[in-house]
Amino acid sequence: MTTAYIVDAVRSPVGRRGGALAHIHSADLGAHAIRALVDRSGIDPAAVDDVIMGCTDTIGSQAGNVARTAWLAAGLPEHVPGVTIDRQCGSSQQSVHFAAQAVMSGTNDLVVAGGLQNMSAIPISSAMVVGAEFGFTTPFAESEGWRARYGDQEVSQFRAAEMIAAHWDITREEMERFAYESHRRAIVATDEGRFAREIAPLAGLDADQGPRRDTSLEKMAALATLVDGGRITAAVASQISDASSAVLVASERAIAEHGLTPRARIHHLSVRAADPVWMLTAPIPATMHALERAGMSIDDIDLFEVNEAFASVVLAWMKETGADPAKVNVNGGGIALGHPIGATGTRLMTTLLHELERTGGRYGLQTMCEGGGVANVTIIERL
To answer: In this protein, which residues make up the domain named Thiolase C-terminal (predicted)?
Structure first.
C-alpha cells in the first residue's frame, strides 16, 4: 500500500455571515481555493485524477455537484471529474480521507480534496426545509424506523450541547472562559501573521472576519441562553460563516513524476460514530480508537485541532482524552474563526499543517463532531 502525502493546503479567509464573502457564488467560492491550490503547488491541473469537495445543504448555488462546477469555474481542464460529499460538519475532512484512500489503494495519484460553504446565501438546514413541501420536515421525526428506535425525542445540536455540558458538569462560566480564549488566541495568531501563508485573499479580504476584539467575559455573561434554563449561548457556539479550502493529496509516484515536495503524510485516518441524539460526543471514542489503531498515546501528539462547534464539545473531549489544553486549537477555533460547515474540515487541516511547520511539531491530530453522531479523525506527520 502506497503512502498518501499532503503536498499543499490553502484556504480562503473566513467571512462572517453577511460579510465580505456573502455575495460570492458558491461555485466561485470553491473555485478560489482550488485555483489557489493549483497555482501554489505548481501542479499541472490536467494530471489531477479527481476533485472531492465537501458541502452541506446542496441546494441553489450549492446544488448540481458543486465540486465539479467549482473546478470548471476555476477554468481548469474539463476531463477532470469532481464529486460533492456530505458528512455534515466533517464533509471536507472526509474528502481528505477519500482522497488518501484512493491514493493508498493505487487507483489515483493526484486528488484535490476540499470543501466550500456559503452559509450567508444558503442558511444552515435549508435542505431540510425544502422537504416540507412534500410533508417531511426533518430527517428524523417522520421516519417510522427512526421513531421505533429513538422515540419522539428532540434531535438538535443545541440540545446535544446542553446535554454534554450537564453530563460532564461544565459550567456556563467555564465555557465562556474557553470561548474568550478562542478569540484571544485567534487575534494573537492574526496579529503575528500565523495565518498569512495559508490564506489566499478574496474579495479584498485577507484575514478572517470572525475574531471579536471587543468581546469580554462581561459581554458574554449578559447574553441569553439558546435554550430556556440552559447554559449554552451564542458566545460559546461556532459562528455562521462563508469560506472554502483545499488540500492536494499525492502518491509516491506522483511526487516523483511531478517533482513535488511533500509537506506531510497521512499517518492515520478513521471514522467512528456514537449516539445520534447526543450527536456531538463521537470525537471522544473516535480519538481513542484512532490512537489505539495508530499505536500512539495522547502525549505523542504535538498539536490538536478539535472543531469548536460548541465549547462544551471540546471541554468534554479534553476531560475524557486528557489532552493538554495548551496543545488544543492553539490559534483559536470555530467560536472565533467561524465554522463554514463544508469547508471547515480542510480549513482545520490547512491550519494544522501550517502550525506544525511553524512550531516544528511532528504529529497533529484533527477531529470534529458531525451530524448523526459521527466523527472523523486524521493524524498527519509533518515532513
So the answer is: 261-382
